[in-house]
Amino acid sequence: MSDGLRARIRAGDREAFAELYESYARTVYNHAFRLTGDWSVAEEVMGDTFLAAWRTREQLEPGDDTLKPWLLGVATNKARNANRGIGRRLAFLARRPAPAPVADFADEAAGRIDDARRLAAVRTVFGRLRRGEQEVLALCVWSGLDYAQAAEAMGIPVGTVRSRLSRARARLRKLAEQRLAEEKKEPPHRRGEVQREAAFAALPFQEFQEDPR
Protein backbone atom coordinates (compact mmCIF):
# COMPACT_ATOMS: atom_id res chain seq x y z
CA MET A 1 0.00 0.00 0.00
CA SER A 2 1.37 3.37 -1.00
CA ASP A 3 2.78 5.92 1.44
CA GLY A 4 0.46 8.61 2.74
CA LEU A 5 -2.69 6.65 1.91
CA ARG A 6 -4.48 7.86 5.03
CA ALA A 7 -3.78 11.51 4.17
CA ARG A 8 -4.85 10.99 0.58
CA ILE A 9 -8.11 9.37 1.65
CA ARG A 10 -8.76 12.18 4.13
CA ALA A 11 -8.31 14.61 1.23
CA GLY A 12 -10.88 12.76 -0.87
CA ASP A 13 -8.50 11.07 -3.31
CA ARG A 14 -10.66 8.52 -5.15
CA GLU A 15 -7.69 6.58 -6.48
CA ALA A 16 -6.40 6.16 -2.93
CA PHE A 17 -9.79 4.92 -1.80
CA ALA A 18 -9.90 2.47 -4.70
CA GLU A 19 -6.49 1.22 -3.52
CA LEU A 20 -7.91 0.79 -0.03
CA TYR A 21 -10.84 -1.17 -1.41
CA GLU A 22 -8.62 -3.49 -3.42
CA SER A 23 -6.49 -4.16 -0.36
CA TYR A 24 -9.23 -4.82 2.18
CA ALA A 25 -12.50 -5.73 0.42
CA ARG A 26 -11.97 -9.45 0.97
CA THR A 27 -10.92 -8.93 4.59
CA VAL A 28 -14.04 -6.87 5.30
CA TYR A 29 -16.25 -9.41 3.53
CA ASN A 30 -14.79 -12.34 5.49
CA HIS A 31 -15.25 -10.48 8.78
CA ALA A 32 -18.86 -9.67 7.92
CA PHE A 33 -19.47 -13.27 6.84
CA ARG A 34 -18.25 -14.60 10.20
CA LEU A 35 -20.49 -12.22 12.14
CA THR A 36 -23.64 -12.66 10.04
CA GLY A 37 -23.36 -16.22 8.72
CA ASP A 38 -24.90 -15.22 5.40
CA TRP A 39 -22.89 -14.47 2.24
CA SER A 40 -25.48 -12.13 0.76
CA VAL A 41 -25.75 -10.14 3.99
CA ALA A 42 -21.96 -10.07 4.19
CA GLU A 43 -21.81 -8.51 0.73
CA GLU A 44 -24.28 -5.85 1.81
CA VAL A 45 -22.27 -5.18 4.95
CA MET A 46 -19.09 -4.88 2.90
CA GLY A 47 -20.71 -2.35 0.55
CA ASP A 48 -22.17 -0.37 3.44
CA THR A 49 -18.79 -0.41 5.20
CA PHE A 50 -16.91 1.19 2.33
CA LEU A 51 -19.72 3.66 1.68
CA ALA A 52 -19.63 4.73 5.33
CA ALA A 53 -15.82 4.83 5.26
CA TRP A 54 -15.87 7.21 2.29
CA ARG A 55 -18.51 9.43 3.87
CA THR A 56 -16.59 9.65 7.17
CA ARG A 57 -13.07 9.82 5.68
CA GLU A 58 -12.45 13.29 7.11
CA GLN A 59 -12.75 11.85 10.62
CA LEU A 60 -9.61 9.75 10.12
CA GLU A 61 -6.82 10.66 12.50
CA PRO A 62 -3.50 11.66 10.86
CA GLY A 63 -0.76 9.06 10.83
CA ASP A 64 0.65 6.14 8.89
CA ASP A 65 -0.90 3.22 10.79
CA THR A 66 -2.86 0.51 8.98
CA LEU A 67 -6.47 1.32 8.18
CA LYS A 68 -7.58 -2.25 8.83
CA PRO A 69 -8.84 -1.64 12.42
CA TRP A 70 -10.84 1.38 11.23
CA LEU A 71 -12.52 -0.57 8.43
CA LEU A 72 -13.26 -3.60 10.59
CA GLY A 73 -14.69 -1.34 13.27
CA VAL A 74 -17.11 0.11 10.73
CA ALA A 75 -17.90 -3.39 9.44
CA THR A 76 -18.60 -4.63 12.97
CA ASN A 77 -21.17 -1.89 13.50
CA LYS A 78 -22.77 -2.59 10.13
CA ALA A 79 -22.93 -6.31 10.92
CA ARG A 80 -24.66 -5.55 14.21
CA ASN A 81 -27.34 -3.64 12.35
CA ALA A 82 -27.68 -6.39 9.76
CA ASN A 83 -28.04 -9.08 12.42
CA ARG A 84 -31.00 -7.28 13.93
CA GLY A 85 -32.94 -7.93 10.74
CA ILE A 86 -31.72 -11.42 9.90
CA GLY A 87 -34.45 -13.17 11.88
CA ARG A 88 -37.21 -11.33 10.03
CA ARG A 89 -35.47 -11.92 6.70
CA LEU A 90 -35.09 -15.65 7.29
CA ALA A 91 -38.73 -15.95 8.31
CA PHE A 92 -39.75 -14.24 5.08
CA LEU A 93 -37.48 -16.42 2.92
CA ALA A 94 -38.72 -19.58 4.61
CA ARG A 95 -42.22 -18.88 3.29
CA ARG A 96 -40.98 -18.57 -0.28
CA PRO A 97 -40.23 -21.44 -2.70
CA ALA A 98 -36.58 -22.08 -3.48
CA PRO A 99 -35.46 -20.25 -6.64
CA ALA A 100 -34.60 -22.29 -9.72
CA PRO A 101 -30.83 -22.69 -10.23
CA VAL A 102 -29.18 -20.55 -12.87
CA ALA A 103 -27.00 -22.74 -15.07
CA ASP A 104 -24.31 -20.16 -15.81
CA PHE A 105 -23.64 -19.61 -12.12
CA ALA A 106 -24.30 -23.11 -10.81
CA ASP A 107 -20.71 -23.78 -9.72
CA GLU A 108 -20.37 -20.43 -7.95
CA ALA A 109 -23.73 -20.85 -6.23
CA ALA A 110 -22.86 -24.36 -5.10
CA GLY A 111 -19.57 -23.12 -3.65
CA ARG A 112 -21.28 -20.34 -1.76
CA ILE A 113 -23.96 -22.65 -0.39
CA ASP A 114 -21.26 -25.07 0.77
CA ASP A 115 -19.41 -22.20 2.48
CA ALA A 116 -22.63 -21.11 4.18
CA ARG A 117 -23.34 -24.65 5.42
CA ARG A 118 -19.85 -24.99 6.84
CA LEU A 119 -20.08 -21.62 8.54
CA ALA A 120 -23.51 -22.56 9.92
CA ALA A 121 -21.93 -25.64 11.51
CA VAL A 122 -19.37 -23.46 13.28
CA ARG A 123 -22.02 -20.94 14.29
CA THR A 124 -24.00 -23.70 16.00
CA VAL A 125 -21.65 -23.02 18.88
CA PHE A 126 -20.18 -19.64 17.96
CA GLY A 127 -23.66 -18.12 17.71
CA ARG A 128 -24.34 -18.92 21.37
CA LEU A 129 -21.70 -16.46 22.50
CA ARG A 130 -22.60 -12.94 23.49
CA ARG A 131 -22.35 -10.38 20.70
CA GLY A 132 -19.25 -8.70 22.13
CA GLU A 133 -17.54 -12.07 22.52
CA GLN A 134 -18.28 -12.98 18.91
CA GLU A 135 -16.91 -9.66 17.73
CA VAL A 136 -13.66 -9.84 19.68
CA LEU A 137 -13.04 -13.41 18.51
CA ALA A 138 -13.70 -12.46 14.91
CA LEU A 139 -11.37 -9.47 15.13
CA CYS A 140 -8.49 -11.01 17.09
CA VAL A 141 -8.55 -14.64 15.98
CA TRP A 142 -9.88 -14.64 12.45
CA SER A 143 -8.97 -11.14 11.24
CA GLY A 144 -5.62 -11.08 13.02
CA LEU A 145 -5.88 -7.76 14.88
CA ASP A 146 -3.77 -7.32 17.99
CA TYR A 147 -5.28 -6.13 21.26
CA ALA A 148 -4.70 -2.44 20.54
CA GLN A 149 -6.13 -2.66 17.02
CA ALA A 150 -9.18 -4.58 18.23
CA ALA A 151 -9.69 -1.97 20.94
CA GLU A 152 -9.58 0.73 18.27
CA ALA A 153 -12.03 -1.15 16.08
CA MET A 154 -14.52 -1.74 18.90
CA GLY A 155 -14.03 1.53 20.71
CA ILE A 156 -13.23 -0.12 24.04
CA PRO A 157 -10.13 -0.22 26.31
CA VAL A 158 -7.34 -2.69 25.58
CA GLY A 159 -7.89 -4.33 28.96
CA THR A 160 -11.51 -4.98 28.07
CA VAL A 161 -10.40 -6.68 24.85
CA ARG A 162 -8.04 -8.94 26.79
CA SER A 163 -10.61 -9.97 29.39
CA ARG A 164 -13.41 -10.35 26.86
CA LEU A 165 -11.26 -12.51 24.58
CA SER A 166 -10.18 -14.73 27.48
CA ARG A 167 -13.78 -15.12 28.61
CA ALA A 168 -14.96 -15.81 25.07
CA ARG A 169 -12.37 -18.57 24.57
CA ALA A 170 -13.41 -20.22 27.83
CA ARG A 171 -17.11 -20.05 26.99
CA LEU A 172 -16.52 -21.34 23.47
CA ARG A 173 -14.58 -24.33 24.77
CA LYS A 174 -17.39 -25.12 27.21
CA LEU A 175 -20.09 -24.78 24.55
CA ALA A 176 -18.08 -26.90 22.12
CA GLU A 177 -17.85 -29.68 24.70
CA GLN A 178 -21.61 -29.48 25.26
CA ARG A 179 -22.15 -29.65 21.51
CA LEU A 180 -19.99 -32.76 21.23
CA ALA A 181 -22.05 -34.39 23.98
CA GLU A 182 -25.24 -33.51 22.11
CA GLU A 183 -23.87 -35.01 18.89
CA LYS A 184 -23.36 -38.36 20.59
CA LYS A 185 -27.12 -38.50 21.05
CA GLU A 186 -27.81 -37.93 17.34
CA PRO A 187 -29.58 -40.79 15.50
CA PRO A 188 -27.35 -43.02 13.33
CA HIS A 189 -28.42 -41.46 10.02
CA ARG A 190 -27.17 -38.09 11.28
CA ARG A 191 -23.75 -39.22 12.47
CA GLY A 192 -22.11 -38.96 9.07
CA GLU A 193 -23.24 -35.35 8.77
CA VAL A 194 -22.13 -34.59 12.30
CA GLN A 195 -18.66 -36.01 11.69
CA ARG A 196 -18.22 -33.90 8.56
CA GLU A 197 -19.40 -30.81 10.41
CA ALA A 198 -17.11 -31.55 13.37
CA ALA A 199 -14.08 -31.89 11.09
CA PHE A 200 -14.62 -28.37 9.82
CA ALA A 201 -15.65 -26.88 13.17
CA ALA A 202 -12.53 -28.26 14.86
CA LEU A 203 -10.27 -26.02 12.78
CA PRO A 204 -11.29 -22.67 14.28
CA PHE A 205 -11.75 -24.20 17.73
CA GLN A 206 -8.06 -25.13 17.81
CA GLU A 207 -7.21 -21.44 17.60
CA PHE A 208 -9.07 -20.75 20.84
CA GLN A 209 -7.13 -23.21 22.98
CA GLU A 210 -4.23 -20.92 23.82
CA ASP A 211 -3.62 -17.21 23.53
CA PRO A 212 -0.45 -16.81 21.41
CA ARG A 213 0.17 -13.26 22.64
Automatic annotation (TrEMBL):
Limits of the RNA polymerase sigma factor 70 region 4 type domain: 121-172
Annotated Gene3D superfamilies: 1.10.1740.10, Winged helix-like DNA-binding domain superfamily/Winged helix DNA-binding domain
Coiled coil location: none
Species for this entry: Streptomyces rugosispiralis
Domain RNA polymerase sigma-70 region: 20-85
Protein name in the entry: RNA polymerase sigma factor
UniProt keyword list: Sigma factor, Transcription, Transcription regulation
Domain of life of the native organism: Bacteria
